[in-house]
């Protein structure tokens, strides 16, 4: 079978990981999951390589696993290691986060703690052990590298927005006004003026 898409490659790879690595290592039933790629994201100075969303977030109660598109064809082994990490989240439950239950299954499937700014052996970050790397390389030998060219988020063409303070005014002309960021304005769920009480707060024309 010819693999044509990134998601097809990820889905087949995940099935192999479940059959050959997770099933022999645990008696936990295989959770419902889907795997896809997502736009590159960062938090602070760190890139987010993968995410596993809780199954209750999905209408069909499926764990949604996302791998960053910042990793590409030459990173196929790392993508598989990230996929293993995110599958562990699905197996133990999102509520376990990166605690001892999570770390225990990581070790069983061949992940080791990775160095972070906070700890040298943190299971917030994980890396493949030598034994797991061999298994991942065998999967790549069977499937080929993922058909995806890595994406550089710095060249996405979107101009970075400054934290500009926008003016909110009362359309009832009572004189009440304030400034706030667009993010803060978007989070406000009512438009009642704190002076005249009218539902009249609007954003002044940009």
Q: What about the largest sheet?
A: 3 strands, mixed
Q: Quick one: overall form?
A: elongated
Strand order of the largest sheet: 1-5-4
Which band does the percent of strand residues land in? 15-25%
Structural class: alpha+beta
Rounded to the nearest angstrom, the distance between the terminal CA atoms is 54 Å
Radius of gyration of CA atoms, rounded to a whole number: 23 Å
Defining traits:
206 residues, alpha+beta, 10 strands, 22% strand, elongated
Topology:
Elements: H1 6-25, E1 33-38, E2 41-43, E3 46-48, E4 50-53, E5 63-68, H2 76-92, H3 100-109, E6 111-114, E7 122-128, H4 130-143, E8 166-170, E9 177-180, H5 182-187, E10 201-203
Parallel strand pairs: 1-5
Antiparallel strand pairs: 2-3, 4-5, 6-7, 8-9, 8-10
Helix pairs in contact: 1-2, 2-3, 2-4
How would you characterize the overall build of this protein?
- With 206 residues, this protein is an alpha+beta fold.
- It is built from 5 helices and 10 strands; from the N terminus they run H-E-E-E-E-E-H-H-E-E-H-E-E-H-E.
- It has a 3-stranded mixed beta sheet with strand order 1-5-4. A 3-stranded antiparallel beta sheet has the order 9-8-10.
- Helix 1 (6-25) packs across helix 2 (76-92) and helix 2 crosses helix 4.
- The chain is elongated.
- The model has no long low-confidence stretch (mean pLDDT 89).
